[in-house]
Every structure is written in structure tokens, then in C-alpha cells.
């Protein structure tokens, strides 16, 4: 009885638990068992001694899925490709129940290794056919691709097929991965692109060599032209006639080799002609064949992409951020959790990296890539007029870079919130890339028999992991909702497709698995009846030889202003064909206005208003020829215009590729590639502004003297060893002309050069632009510096200096001191003639005294300073210092009668970051000075927050004389929990600190170890420990009373490190805007170059808010490794802007908005600008305006604005 009583006591809790369980939100996707669907297909692969992962790397690439209505009942049926098993065709009988008709259909595959599935009505008879790509077998006849032509239904309503590939001319015997039908020559019929992937020599997958781009490699894709329309025009066949395809690969320019795994047909530049995007495995470059509109293609991948995925697999192309431009996602193999990361991660080898460059390979990294389409930049067209869009790779920012061993990405709006989502398939049965396994195997390979290899294969690690589901946010970023969406079942998944299988208005999801039954996921969205999840489905009826209207485009705009685009091609993801229907998620919108359909032949139709939540059909017969305005859109008037070429300026920065990583193996970035600096001023006294461009190590700086026509003549400054970091033009010796301070920076020096190389330099101007080194003007510095900024902080009438210390060579991140250098030229003037020091011309020689200890002792403690500003932070009319650096928070040193002490409780001290730069401006028009601060950005694996900061542990841990610097990040452990792990892998850590090899002899053990395991408690306690919790480039709002509010700038400003910045009213609305430049070519090899930035113009609203402008709106496009940005008036008073690029050209832009330059004298540090609306904006005019940047000293005024009060030192 007691037992019964206790059991009854639990009943209320059980009822409550059952109630709560019933209230649990149902996942978006519900996997249906084969007993429900009737789909029992499993792509089972059996290893053998003659065929296994060790002798054929592509054994587990899997098979695809094809969706099409094969029996004409208006329901999508499913086709699965099998490798060692037969293909399967399932007819949709409604309610997500399917019937296997493979036997009667005759599509089993004839014993071939089938991979890709391409669904198409190839002969325009109204019945859907299937082209099956085949591979692997050594006998060519067993690799002949299959074209199953639909012969119509039998008496039972089941479709029958006949293989007619040979008759059609497309029984291609290459090692075909997948294929796509499209009309490349706009003649009205469908041509065929065949993607090839043949490992003809195992050495070619691993060894770098000269690439073949002449069509002679067996690994070149094929292009077949459909001759239907041409034959008809010549009367060579009945109508309709059976299509005949002809191989035109070579004459069409399909010449580049590659291990092809993914492809997409897309009009990427929107010129009305289809282009081809190909993702290639291993080191072979991805391809972007741009259609030349004359029957040929040109590979323009190098011009379009700054880097791509290394082992690129499947891809998809669709607009993810509502700008009406198609973006590109490609899959690779970077795991999410630390154990898997470190188990695969090899050592960084910069020599190999350089060899890639020498051999012409594009930069590639082992992670997914998401190429954000930035549109066709201003002036970006070749001589034939073919325009090419530019792409920014943002997968790390978007949150989709790490999805394991991934295959098929599919972009579609699965939850109907109006944003495209991303589904990814995953898994690999035998992990041949596991470092512990490969190390073992390489040691015993020669000793193994075939039977022993098979036994060894069975013991290999597997990658049976879940697929991924990412909800799109609509801004180019995604949220991982894999668990909530019900996609967390581990599998070996390859090809996948989506379709509305149950006709309920949402997209279901089908996956082809290795060694498991196929997954069929029912989308449960519609049954939840969400109020803000509307949709529209569009079917296409084309003409003649393209009845499905493949290649048609949809453009529309939603009430919230989002621009949308859809391109009609079913060949997406990996090896598969999705349902050939446009499925558009609309979010809250209940109608679509002005739905524009552009057909492949250029005809257009516009549906003025279409109700949501239905399927409509559009027909080419209802379309009309496009108007001339639609064909040639009006070019927008931009804010800036590149005039470099028209000025005849061809100045280019040159620098040797020094390998900083040889000194410290675990550096996060180089210190040798931060130049060149730009400094503007009238150096020869002719009344025009000139420009100095810093020189790299052992290279002279350039002196660009402006002429009366606005052009420049180029001269050089004196030879020197040191790398020029920051430059500053100012009157050091009070003689009325501009002298030059050059900060010596970089780390690329021999020990015997270090003292000379790190001595900063002052060059005295003779008044005519000739500069002479003043060897005794400066105290001994001995620091690799960053910036120099001037102000008369002590009010004695001359300009004093702040000089930032950047790094101690080979001891990063040990702090280095910065300097306050007092200018003593006025003191020299006060001396008697007997004791004064004069130069040859009788003038007093400049001399600066290090007074840091007396006036700013906190600078002696040091840091890693990147930039600084002399600025009045508290409106007390005294010049303070604002300093930013790496592993630091922005620091205000408040001027207290000539002594500088840190400002406390400012709101800045908690914002530690990788701060690069500063610029000042009253962005909210409230009368005080705000700031923009350039940071690392968020497109990085160094994801930092208060909860999960990035840290650095540094010191000579093993007492061997080498300074160790270990960065840590929070990655997931095997249980999905975040822990603090080393950023670098085992090889790099061991190269830096050999003792780690004794502690961890296997990659797996190292991958399970946190930093607290790897470093002993004694090592951690002695370490210099640094922390970063903020990587966003930010707006620092001055709240007054010495307090600030920091908030991130818009997302486009977070795609790469930001360096030079310029605050100026560019659009003439009375509010300060901003120009930002950046990118870093010297970042570590784990995540690769940080190069997603193309420069950015931010339009200010006068309230501290900013809107990012596209390159087409701003006219500003600087895609290189940009460092400095400055402005000045040309000889006619027009506003000009210059940008420097590391190992790149100096670019010059013209402001389109008329402005007037009001120069100021040497003592003025700020003015009040009276705006057209009567308000006053405080504008500081510093000596040194941002990172490595010094603009002309003055203020730019819009019409109706004037200078009011001036503030002097």
C-alpha cells in the first residue's frame, strides 16, 4: 500500500510533465519514416579491397535527388541516384506517400555509378526527362551519362523511360559529377553543361603545379550546344525534332581544369546572358565563366572573388540580403567543435602560401564561403562592355563558415518570414583527413596488405554528424536553428532537394544518405497557420524548345522596401534538381506589387498586383519586348568619382612579402604590411596641397607635388632602411614651412639593423620641398611605432608630438611605451646667440625632448598603440589625448594643465578590442566631438563578447629565449558547450613551444584540451594575460562630462578590419558622413586574408545614426588592402580624396558635391561651423586625422555654411 501511495503522489507531476511536453513547440521539419512515405531508398556503399577510401577518394561523394512531375499528375515525384545500388523513382500519390516505379520506368542506372540528377523536358514534349551523371568506373562505356527520355505513361499511369543519351549526342564519358541545362546562346533551346571531376593522378590532388587553362587537361568541364533551333532554321528536321547536342567546349572558352563538385547557372551580372559558376575540389581554382554574349565565356573568378573555399563542394546562388543581387554560398569542411577542428588542422606554411601565388592559384581557405554580391562597381567593365560584379566573402560574419564535412547548401525561405534560409547536408563515412589517422597510415602504408587495409578502414574515424538549418535574418547573417528545426539527426548526407511535396504551400526537404534510408522532412509551417508567414509560388510556361522557361528572372519589391530576385534554374546545391517552381516567402506582405518576369529572350511582363498564398502561372506568350529604358537603366549620380586615370597618376606602393610568422609562429597578423601612410600639405610653398606617400622597408617615400592642373609630379625622399609608419607634416622649427616626421615601424630587420631601423626620423624642409634628415632632432626611440600626432599641449607656441609605440619585434604582445615629445624650438629661440643651435641656414635646428615620464607617465607602462587623436573630449578648451590599440580599450588621457592622466568611469574602459583607428567629428550636431573607431570587425573566427572573450597568454614559457603568444577563443566542445581553447592547431603551437609536443602526442588529445590543460598553472600565472571583448567598428558618442556610449556601426562596416577613416559632409545635407577603408592581407593563415571590404561611405543623419551606401550609390570602390584616406583641395579648390593600398595603387576620387575649402592657420585646432539651419557644429582640425592619415588642414563648407569661432592652441 505504501508503494501505491508513493506512485499516486507522482501522478500530478506526470500530468504536468505531459502537459508541458504537449506545449513544446513543434520543430519546423518533421522527419517521416519510410513506413509512412514508402521511400526506402538507401545509398548503401560497401568497401572492398579493390574499392575503398584509400584507393579512391571520391567513393563517398554520394548521389543526388531530382524533383519533377514525371507522370503528369501535377504532383512532384522523386528520383534518387544510387552509387553501388540502383537509382529509384518514386511517384507522389499525395499526402506524402510515394510508390516505387523504378522497375517499370526503366531508370535503375544500368549498373553505373550514378551521381548527379538533372531533371528537364529535353525534347519539349511536355514530359519531364532525367539526365543522370555517372562516374568512377574505369571503363569509359560504364561512365557514359544516361538520358532517360520520358516515353509517356503506361496503362497503369506509370511513366516509362528510354536511355537516348547516345542519340542526342550527350552520352558523355568524362567522370561527370553533375550537369545543367540552360540556354547559353539565347537561341531558344537548352544547351548542356557537364561538370567533370576525374582524379587521373593521385598526386594532382595534393601537389601544387602549374595549372592548365588551355583545355588539354582531362579535368575540363564540357559544354554541349543544342542545335535544335539552328537545324530548324535550316530546315534540317521536323518540328519538333529530336535535339542534337554538339561539344563546343574549346571554342566556347571552357578551358580551365578543376575537380568539379558544384555548379550553378546564373546571370550573375544581369546582362541577360547566362553565366556559369563552378566550385572545384582541392587546390584547383573555382571558376566563374562570364558569358561574352558571342558564344564564348571568359573565366573571371580571379577578378570577382578575393578568395574562395579550398575543398569546395556544393553551392547555391540566391539573394540573401534583399538588395536584388544574387549571392553565392559554397561548402567546405571546417568543423564547428574544437575537437574536430584540431583533429583536421595542419600547420600554417607561409612558403606554400607564397608558392600558390607564384603558380597563379587564387587564395583559398578550408571553410565555407559566402560571397556577398556588391553589384557592378563604378566603371567595372572590360573593353567589350561586359560588366562584372564584385563580391565580399562574409561567411564568418554570417555565422555559416563552420558546418563540418558539408555537401549541399540550399537557399530558400523555409519559414516564410521573407528571408532566405540555408539548409546544409553533412557527413562522411570514413574520415581520411583525420590527422592522427593520416600520420599512422603514412607510417605503415608500405607494410599493409589489401586485406589489412580493409581492416584498417573499418577502424577509421567517421563523420556522422547532423545536417544544419540556418534561419536567415535578411541582412546577410544567419541564426543556427538546427535543433529547433528538427534537423539534428546524425547522418552521411549528400544530395538534397526541396519541393512542396504535399501541396500545402510550404517547402519540404528530401536528402540522399549514404548507408541510411533517405530523409524525407515534412515542413510543418502551414499547419501552425502563422499570421506573418505568407508565400507566393510561380510556375513558368516557356516557349518552343524551352517549355519550362528555364532562365527566367523574377524581380519584385515588398512593402518594407526589400528588393527581391529569383532566377529560374532547378540545378542547385549538390548533385540535385529542386522543384522547378519559384517559391517566394513574403513575411507579412499579403500582396506583391509589380512582379516583373524577364524571360530568356528578353521579353518582359509585369503583374501589377498579385495576392499572396497561392500558386500562379506565368507564360512567355503574355510577355512583351522590353523597353529601351529597361534594357539600358539610367546610371545613378554618385557622391564620389574615381579620377585616378584621368589625372595620369600611376603611383603604386611596393613591398617585399616578409614572413613575420617565422619569428613568432602564432602571430595573429603581420606587422610588416600596414603602410603606406599619406600626409597632405603644401611642402614647396606654391599654394597647392602636395602629398607624401610612405615607403616600405628599404624603399623611399614618394613626394607627389601638385601642379596647377591638379595633376602630380612624383619625386622621392631620402633613402632609408626603416619602414615608414605614420607620417606628419608640421612646422617643427618655426620657420613657416612644413617639415616631416616619419615614424619608423615594422619588424623586418636583422638584429644588427634594429637600432638604426627603429630610430624615428625628422626631415627638415628648405621651404622648396627638399627634405634633409635632422639626425639630432629626436631623442632615442628604439620602438617600432605606429602614429605621430601634433598639438601645442603646453601652449608655448610650437607643436609638440604624441608618438605611438606599436610593437617590440619578436616579442608580441609585450607592451611598448609611447612618447610625448616636447618641441623645444621656442626655447632655443630664447637662448642667447652663443648657446643656440643653428643649422647651416642660420635657423634654429629643431629639437624634441622626451617628457613622457613627467607629463604622461601612463604611456611609459606601454601598450600596443595603433592610433591616437589630440582632441578636446570634454569641451574645456584644453587638448586631451584619445588613444586606441590592440588588446586595449580606448583610453582618454585628460589634459590637466599640461599633465595627462587617464579618465576614469568614461564608459570606454570595458571595451577592449583590436582597435586600429580613430577619427573625430560632431556626428550628432550637439556641439561636442564624437568619434569613429576602426576595429577588427566581425568577419572572423575571433568572435569576442563579454561572456566569451578572446584572450592572449604570452611570455617565454619554456625559457628558451623566444616569446610565446597563444591566442584563445571559445569554441564548442564535443557536447556543444563553449570552452576556452587555443586558436591555433597542434602543429603551430608545437613550433612555437616544443614542450607541448611532450604533453600531447596526438591531435585528438590536443583537441580535447582547454588552455587550462595545455598551459600549467605556473605558466598561466606568469603569463601576460590580455582580453578582447569587442571587435565591432564603432561609433563613440560623446555624452558630455567625460562619459561615452559605444555602439557598433552598420553591418557592412564589420566585414573586415577598418583602418583609415574620414569625417566629412559628402552629400551636402549638413550632416557629417564618413568614408572608411580597410582589409588586412597579413592576417594569420587559419582564417585567411581579411579582404571583404571595398571601402564604405556611411551617410550620417545628424543624430549619430548611419546608413551604409552601396558602391553604386557612393561611387566609392577601393577593394585592395587600403590603409590611409585623406582629403585636400586641388589647384582649383575642388575637393579631392586619396586612398593608399598596401602593395597597390594610390586612388584619387573627386567629390561630386560642390564644397569650399576654408584653410586654417597652424595654431587653430577647431572651429564652429554655422550650418544652413542655423545650428552650430564643432569641428576639430587635427594634425593627423586617422590611421596613417593626415588631410589638408582646414574645413570643408557646403553652400550656405560659414566658419564662426576659431579655437587656437
Summary tags:
1209 residues; mainly beta; Methylamine Dehydrogenase, Chain H; 3 domains; five-stranded mixed sheet; five-stranded antiparallel sheet; 80 strands
SSE map:
Blueprint: H1 2-23, E1 29-32, H2 34-37, E2 65-68, E3 77-80, E4 88-92, E5 98-100, H3 102-105, E6 113-120, E7 129-135, E8 146-153, E9 159-163, H4 165-168, E10 176-182, E11 191-196, H5 203-206, E12 222-226, H6 228-233, E13 245-247, H7 249-252, E14 259-266, E15 275-281, E16 287-291, E17 297-299, H8 301-304, E18 308-309, E19 315-318, E20 327-330, H9 338-344, H10 350-359, E21 364-365, E22 369-373, E23 391-393, H11 395-398, E24 406-412, E25 421-426, H12 435-444, H13 450-458, E26 465-466, E27 468-472, E28 478-480, E29 490-491, E30 493-499, E31 508-513, E32 519-523, H14 525-528, E33 534-541, E34 553-557, E35 563-567, E36 571-572, E37 576-577, E38 582-587, E39 591-598, E40 604-611, E41 614-619, H15 628-631, E42 640-642, E43 678-681, E44 690-693, E45 702-706, E46 712-716, E47 723-730, E48 739-745, H16 754-757, E49 761-765, E50 771-773, E51 784-791, E52 800-807, E53 819-823, H17 825-830, E54 848-850, H18 852-855, H19 858-861, E55 865-871, E56 880-888, E57 891-896, E58 899-902, E59 913-914, E60 917-921, E61 930-934, ...
Parallel strand pairs: 18-21, 33-41, 43-78
Antiparallel strand pairs: 1-32, 2-3, 3-4, 4-5, 6-7, 7-8, 8-9, 10-11, 11-12, 12-13, 14-15, 15-16, 16-17, 19-20, 20-22, 22-23, 24-25, 25-27, 26-29, 27-28, 30-31, 31-32, 33-38, 34-35, 34-39, 36-37, 39-40, 42-74, 43-44, 44-45, 45-46, 47-48, 48-49, 49-50, 51-52, 52-53, 53-54, 55-56, 56-57, 56-59, ...
Amino acid at each position: 500500500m505504501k508503494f501505491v501511495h508513493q506512485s499516486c503522489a507522482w501522478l500530478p507531476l506526470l500530468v504536468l510533465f505531459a502537459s508541458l511536453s504537449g506545449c513544446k513547440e513543434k520543430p519546423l521539419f518533421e522527419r517521416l519514416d519510410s513506413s509512412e512515405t514508402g521511400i526506402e531508398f538507401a545509398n548503401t556503399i560497401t568497401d572492398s579491397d579493390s574499392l575503398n577510401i584509400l584507393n579512391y577518394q571520391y567513393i563517398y561523394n554520394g548521389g543526388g535527388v531530382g524533383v519533377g512531375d514525371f507522370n503528369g499528375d501535377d504532383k512532384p515525384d522523386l528520383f534518387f541516384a544510387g552509387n553501388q545500388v540502383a537509382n529509384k523513382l518514386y511517384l507522389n500519390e499525395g499526402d506524402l506517400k510515394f510508390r516505387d516505379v523504378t522497375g517499370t520506368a526503366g531508370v535503375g542506372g544500368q549498373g553505373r555509378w550514378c551521381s548527379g540528377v538533372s531533371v528537364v523536358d529535353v525534347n519539349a514534349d511536355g514530359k519531364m526527362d532525367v539526365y543522370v551523371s555517372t562516374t568512377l568506373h574505369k571503363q569509359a562505356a560504364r561512365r557514359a551519362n544516361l538520358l532517360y527520355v520520358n516515353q509517356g505513361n503506361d496503362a497503369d499511369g506509370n511513366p516509362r523511360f528510354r536511355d537516348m543519351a547516345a542519340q542526342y549526342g550527350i552520352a558523355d564519358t568524362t567522370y561527370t559529377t553533375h550537369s545543367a541545362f540552360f540556354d547559353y546562346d539565347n537561341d531558344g533551346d537548352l544547351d548542356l553543361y557537364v561538370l567533370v571531376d576525374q582524379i587521373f593522378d593521385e598526386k594532382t590532388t595534393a601537389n601544387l603545379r602549374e595549372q592548365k587553362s588551355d583545355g588539354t587537361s582531362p579535368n575540363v568541364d564540357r559544354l554541349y550546344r543544342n542545335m535544335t533551333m539552328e537545324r530548324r532554321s535550316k530546315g534540317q528536321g521536323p518540328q519538333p525534332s529530336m535535339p542534337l547536342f554538339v561539344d563546343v567546349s574549346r571554342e566556347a572558352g571552357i578551358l580551365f581544369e578543376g575537380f568539379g563538385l558544384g555548379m550553378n547557372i546564373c546571370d550573375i551580372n544581369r546582362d541577360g546572358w547566362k553565366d556559369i559558376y563552378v566550385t572545384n575540389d582541392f587546390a584547383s581554382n573555382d571558376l566563374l565563366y562570364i558569358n561574352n554574349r558571342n558564344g564564348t565565356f571568359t573565366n573571371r573568378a580571379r577578378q570577382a572573388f578575393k578568395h574562395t573555399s579550398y575543398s569546395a563542394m556544393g553551392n547555391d546562388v540566391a539573394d540573401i540580403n534583399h538588395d536584388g543581387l544574387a549571392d553565392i554560398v559554397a561548402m567546405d569542411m571546417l568543423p564547428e567543435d574544437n575537437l574536430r577542428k584540431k583533429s583536421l588542422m595542419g600547420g600554417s606554411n607561409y612558403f606554400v602560401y607564397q608558392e600558390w601565388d607564384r603558380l597563379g592559384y587564387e587564395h583559398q581557405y578550408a571553410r565555407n564561403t559566402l560571397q556577398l554580391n556588391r553589384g557592378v562597381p563604378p566603371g567595372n567593365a572590360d573593353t567589350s562592355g561586359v560588366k562584372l560584379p564584385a563580391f565580399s566573402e562574409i561567411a564568418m560574419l554570417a555565422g555559416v563558415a563552420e558546418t563540418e564535412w558539408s555537401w549541399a547548401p540550399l537557399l530558400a525561405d523555409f519559414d516564410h518570414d521573407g528571408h532566405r534560409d540555408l539548409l546544409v547536408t553533412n557527413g562522411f563515412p570514413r574520415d581520411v583527413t583525420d590527422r592522427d589517422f593520416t600520420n599512422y597510415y603514412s607510417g605503415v602504408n608500405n607494410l599493409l596488405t589489401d586485406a589489412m587495409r580493409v581492416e584498417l578502414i573499418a577502424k577509421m574515424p567517421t563523420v556522422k554528424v547532423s545536417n544544419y538549418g540556418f534561419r536567415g535574418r535578411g541582412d546577410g547573417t544567419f541564426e543556427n536553428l538546427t535543433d529547433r528545426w528538427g534537423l539534428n539527426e546524425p547522418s552521411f548526407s549528400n544530395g538534397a532537394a526541396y519541393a512542396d511535396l504535399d501541396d500545402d504551400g510550404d517547402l519540404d526537404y528530401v536528402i540522399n544518405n549514404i548507408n541510411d534510408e533517405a530523409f524525407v522532412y515534412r515542413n510543418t509551417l502551414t499547419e501552425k497557420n502563422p499570421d506573418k508567414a505568407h508565400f507566393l509560388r510561380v510556375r513558368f510556361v516557356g516557349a518552343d524548345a524551352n517549355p519550362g522557361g528555364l532562365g527566367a528572372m523574377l524581380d519584385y519589391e515588398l512593402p518594407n522596401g526589400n528588393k527581391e530576385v529569383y532566377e529560374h534554374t532547378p540545378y542547385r546545391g549538390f548533385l540535385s534538381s529542386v522543384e522547378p517552381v519559384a517559391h517566394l516567402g513574403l513575411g507579412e506582405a499579403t500582396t506583391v506589387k509589380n512582379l516583373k518576369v524577364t524571360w530568356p529572350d528578353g521579353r518582359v511582363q509585369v503583374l501589377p498586383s498579385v495576392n499572396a498564398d497561392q500558386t500562379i502561372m506565368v507564360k512567355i506568350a503574355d510577355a512583351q519586348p522590353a523597353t529601351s529604358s529597361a534594357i539600358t537603366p539610367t546610371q545613378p549620380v554618385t557622391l564620389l568619382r574615381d579620377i585616378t586615370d584621368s589625372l595620369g597618376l600611376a603611383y603604386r606602393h611596393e613591398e617585399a612579402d616578409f614572413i613575420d610568422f617565422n619569428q613568432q609562429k602564432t602571430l595573429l597578423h603581420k606587422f610588416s604590411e600596414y603602410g603606406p601612410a599619406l600626409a597632405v600639405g603644401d611642402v614647396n610653398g606654391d599654394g597647392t596641397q602636395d602629398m607624401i606617400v610612405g615607403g616600405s622597408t628599404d624603399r623611399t617615400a614618394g613626394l607627389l607635388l601638385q601642379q596647377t592642373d591638379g595633376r602630380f609630379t612624383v619625386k622621392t625622399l631620402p633613402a632609408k632602411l626603416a619602414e615608414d609608419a605614420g607620417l606628419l607634416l608640421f612646422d617643427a622649427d618655426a620657420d613657416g614651412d612644413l617639415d616631416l616626421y616619419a615614424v619608423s615601424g615594422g619588424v623586418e630587420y636583422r638584429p644588427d639593423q634594429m637600432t638604426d631601423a627603429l630610430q624615428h626620423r625628422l626631415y627638415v624642409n628648405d621651404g622648396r620641398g627638399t627634405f634633409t634628415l635632422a639626425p639630432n632632432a629626436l631623442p632615442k626611440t628604439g620602438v617600432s611605432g605606429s602614429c605621430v600626432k601634433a598639438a601645442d599641449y603646453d601652449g608655448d607656441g610650437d607643436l609638440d608630438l604624441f608618438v605611438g609605440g606599436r610593437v617590440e619585434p619578436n616579442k608580441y604582445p609585450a607592451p611598448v611605451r609611447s612618447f610625448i615629445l616636447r618641441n623645444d624650438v621656442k626655447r632655443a629661440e630664447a637662448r642667447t646667440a652663443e648657446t643656440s643651435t643653428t643649422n647651416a641656414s642660420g635657423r634654429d635646428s629643431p629639437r624634441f625632448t622626451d617628457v613622457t615620464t613627467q607629463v604622461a607617465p601612463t604611456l611609459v607602462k606601454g601598450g600596443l598603440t595603433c592610433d591616437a587623436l589630440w582632441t578636446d573630449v570634454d569641451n574645456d578648451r584644453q587638448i586631451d589625448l584619445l588613444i586606441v590599440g590592440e588588446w586595449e580599450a580606448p583610453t582618454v588621457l585628460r589634459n590637466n594643465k599640461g599633465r595627462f592622466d587617464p579618465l576614469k568611469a568614461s564608459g570606454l574602459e570595458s571595451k577592449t578590442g583590436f582597435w586600429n583607428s580613430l577619427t573625430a567629428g560632431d556626428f550628432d550636431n550637439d556641439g561636442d566631438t564624437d568619434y569613429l573607431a576602426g576595429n577588427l570587425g566581425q568577419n572572423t573566427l575571433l568572435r569576442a563578447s563579454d561572456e566569451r572573450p578572446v584572450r592572449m597568454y604570452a611570455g617565454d614559457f619554456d625559457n628558451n629565449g623566444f616569446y610565446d603568444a597563444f591566442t584563445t577563443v571559445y569554441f564548442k566542445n564535443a557536447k556543444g558547450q563553449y570552452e576556452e581553447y587555443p586558436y591555433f592547431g597542434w602543429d603551430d603551437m608545437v613550433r612555437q613551444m616544443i614542450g607541448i609536443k611532450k604533453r600531447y602526442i596526438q591531435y585528438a588529445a590536443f583537441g580535447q584540451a582547454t588552455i587550462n590543460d595545455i598551459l600549467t598553472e605556473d605558466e598561466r600565472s606568469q603569463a601576460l594575460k590580455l582580453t578582447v571583448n569587442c571587435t565591432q567598428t564603432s561609433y563613440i558618442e560623446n555624452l558630455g562630462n567625460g562619459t561615452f556610449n559605444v555602439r557598433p556601426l552598420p553591418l557592412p562596416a564589420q566585414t573586415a578590419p577598418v583602418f583609415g577613416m574620414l569625417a566629412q559632409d559628402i552629400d551636402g545635407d549638413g550632416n557629417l558622413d564618413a568614408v572608411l577603408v580597410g582589409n588586412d592581407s597579413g592576417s594569420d593563415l587559419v582564417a585567411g586574408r581579411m579582404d571583404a571590404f571595398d571601402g564604405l561611405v556611411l551617410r550620417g543623419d545628424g543624430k549619430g545614426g548611419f546608413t551604409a551606401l552601396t558602391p553604386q550609390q557612393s561611387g566609392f570602390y577601393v577593394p585592395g588592402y587600403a590603409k590611409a584616406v585623406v582629403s585636400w583641395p586641388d589647384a582649383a579648390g575642388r575637393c579631392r580624396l586619396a586612398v593608399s593600398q598596401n602593395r597597390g595603387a594610390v586612388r584619387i576620387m573627386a567629390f561630386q558635391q560642390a564644397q569650399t575649402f576654408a584653410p586654417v592657420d597652424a595654431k587653430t585646432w577647431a572651429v564652429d561651423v554655422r550650418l544652413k539651419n542655423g545650428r552650430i557644429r564643432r569641428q576639430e582640425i587635427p594634425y593627423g586625422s586617422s590611421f596613417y592619415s593626415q588631410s589638408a588642414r582646414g574645413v570643408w563648407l557646403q553652400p550656405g555654411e560659414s566658419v564662426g569661432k576659431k579655437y587656437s592652441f
